[in-house]
Design brief:
By secondary structure, the chain is an alpha/beta fold. The protein is built from 3 helices and 12 strands; from the N terminus they run E-E-H-E-E-E-E-E-E-E-E-E-H-H-E.
Length: 252
């Protein structure tokens, strides 16, 4: 591993660099007032953007490691590649755009800001998402998602568009939203009843839901160069909790 990172203005060369040194250099540039920087040659380095309170822009070329943007508070991060696990873990504010797919635990405890994934996500995306007053997170997955989507979700908006999904592959795998007690999940049909958690139900979209879906689809299309009109040719439905206290029968 290299001990020092090559810095060229606002560009950092991450080839073969240990993640701790790369993250130190990012912080150093931010403290010097750098508002925009580019990372090249990223290959598995963890914690990029983690815990940073700033409104700077960060372009990442390659595949960042686990906990990208974990606890981030205001950063605008664009990844030209795939992400690994725990992307946007407990992210508080800002925007994260990934021009690829991601692994498991996408948006775990996501608290605010927006996360747009061009491709697909693994298991347990959107687990424990929550919102507080006007801080409402948005998580958009362009492709498919694995089991336990939206598990224990308490707030925010989660959209899965199902792009590129074939007829023999479900947009979302089994156990959708078990324990969900807040927020909404919007998916294309069909959503089989057997795949749902016991606490949720499939609902028709309201006018407000439709307006939100159009706005979100337009944002996705403008970000990734897709066709909003093509996406909206499918019929979408909403998964939401039946009540606010899914476990009340378990307690005296």
């Amino acid at each position: 591993m290299k001990d020092k990172v090559k810095v060229n203005g606002s560009e950092l060369d991450a080839h073969g660099l240990h993640y701790s040194e790369l993250n130190r250099q990012i912080l150093r540039l931010l403290r010097k007032g750098q508002q925009s920087m580019t990372l090249r040659g990223v290959n598995g380095q963890r914690y990029i953007g983690a815990g940073i309170q700033a409104k700077a822009q960060l372009a990442v070329h390659g595949t960042p490691g686990n906990d990208l943007a974990a606890f981030a508070d205001g950063l605008q991060i664009t990844v030209y590649g795939n992400g690994q696990d725990a992307v946007a873990n407990t992210m508080n504010k800002g925007k994260l755009v990934i021009h690829g797919s991601v692994g498991d635990l996408l948006g775990y405890s996501l608290r605010g800001g927006s996360v747009l994934i061009k491709g697909s996500a693994g298991y347990r995306a959107g687990v424990h998402m929550k919102q507080y007053v006007d801080q409402k997170p948005l998580l958009v997955i362009g492709g498919t998602a694995g089991d336990f989507l939206g598990e224990y979700m308490a707030g925010g908006d989660l959209v899965v568009l199902g792009l590129g999904c074939t007829a023999d592959h479900p947009v979302v795998e089994d156990n959708i939203a078990p324990g969900m007690h807040g927020g909404r999940i919007i998916l294309p049909e069909p959503v089989p009843e057997y795949s749902l958690g016991r606490e949720v139900h499939v609902y028709e979209l309201t006018n407000e839901d439709l307006a939100f879906l159009r706005q979100t689809t337009l944002m996705y299309s403008q970000t990734f160069g897709a066709s909003a009109q093509h996406i909206l040719q499918r019929r979408f439905v909403k998964v939401a909790p039946k009540g606010a206290r899914p476990y009340q029968a378990m307690y005296a």
